[in-house]
Design brief:
The chain has 11 helices and 5 strands, in the order ααβαααβββααααααβ. The protein is mainly alpha-helical. A hairpin with a 5-residue loop joins strand 3 (126-130) and strand 4 (136-138).
């Protein structure tokens, strides 16, 4: 069965759970389906048997991670509850955390990348670090390196500042806050919904649900890197989602 057929089947199942009229059970998650979900007051949950079938047995830490992220999605509500968006958010988290589903720090702490290196003067004295546009921030003002942290592997000082302002967190002066699971989940969800990471958002990449849209959505986080792999994960996560009473 093709990935598009699997998406179609999963969406039809979710539409049926909402009790939509037969003419709206069409395998395309559009405005009618989303409005019905929000009006129902229901939430998303996992079909754990399907989840384990796709991804194997989980540690308690992984289970906690799955639950933290879905709880944040349900709490955020609105567009975050779109099953297509939720599936892709889960797939991205699974990939970016190397299947740990934990808010982790980047391996090597970005030591080979500009955001993980200090600038030194001619005497070898550390004085600052650069942002992705080449601007140098003084170490005396921002004494931390802004390597990847959390579910989305948030990088660069500018992004820490932007997400911090959005969420009411002082991430620039306390970057370790990005490793708090609830904060990390909020960063991932808001960043993907608003397009805070690369300028592309879930709504710009997905309309009704197709494998091609899942592949293209990788640009929300990291260009085309492993785009097909993450898309396949998204299909599997969509098949794992179900709609239940809140």
């Amino acid at each position: 069965m093709s990935y598009d057929s699997r998406i179609d089947d999963a969406v039809r199942r979710l539409q049926s759970q909402l009790g939509l009229e037969s003419k709206h059970i069409d395998g395309a998650w559009g405005g009618t389906s989303q409005k019905a979900l929000l009006a129902s007051g229901k939430k998303l949950d996992y079909k754990w048997g399907v989840l384990r079938k796709h991804f194997g047995r989980f540690t308690q830490a992984q289970v906690d991670g799955f639950n933290t992220l879905l709880a944040a999605i349900n709490k955020r509500g609105s567009d975050a509850l779109n099953p297509l968006y939720a599936a892709y958010t889960l797939a991205t988290t699974w990939h970016e955390t190397a299947a740990k589903m934990q808010a982790i720090s980047e391996y090597g702490k970005g030591s080979t990348r500009k955001y993980g290196k200090w600038y030194t003067n001619s005497k070898g004295v550390v004085y600052g670090h650069a942002n992705h546009r080449g601007k140098v921030y003084l170490k005396s003002q921002y004494p931390f390196l802004y390597y990847g942290r959390g579910y989305p592997q948030l990088t660069w000082l500018d992004n820490y500042k932007k997400m911090g302002e959005l969420l009411g967190l002082d991430l620039a002066n306390n970057p370790e806050l990005a490793l708090v699971p609830a904060n990390s989940a909020a960063i991932m969800i808001e960043g993907m919904l608003l397009g805070s990471f690369t300028g592309l958002s879930l709504s710009k990449c997905m309309r009704y649900g197709s494998y091609g849209e899942f592949v293209y959505s990788r640009r929300i986080i990291n260009g085309t890197d492993r785009d097909s792999l993450v898309a396949r994960y998204a299909v599997q996560f969509l098949e794992c989602l179900t709609i239940v009473d809140a």
